[in-house]
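Q: I have 123 residues here and want to know how they pack in 3D. Can you give me a structure?
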Amino acid sequence: MEFVWHIDGTAPLYIQLADDIRLAIIQGRLMPGARIASVRDLAFDAKVNPNTMQRALTELEREGLIETHGTAGRFVAVNEEVLKSIKDRVIDDLVSDFIKRMEALDCDREEAVRRINERKGEE
């Protein structure tokens, strides 16, 4: 699977890489049990140092999203509970960020909901 990397300098590089892989997993573009490309291949694809990619993968492994199977490589975790929990956390983070941004614009809840509904109707 080829990733779309979103590197913009707003957070440490390894965090941004982990976020892109995490998103591919929770969106189902990387299915449970799927083998993940090697550190070297991912680093080459993202144009980053392999040590940085290793750090991103270590973070995802710590979260339980990926697992290492000896010399066979890394795989997406099959644990649906972990996957759902991570997806819920990502959604909660996005909602929290949205609320903070709306509050910074002095936009109340009703206005925000109205605008969301308008946008949703445009799709």
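Q: Anything worth noting?
A: The chain has a mean pLDDT of 92. Helices lie at 13-26, 39-46, 50-63, 80-104, 109-122.
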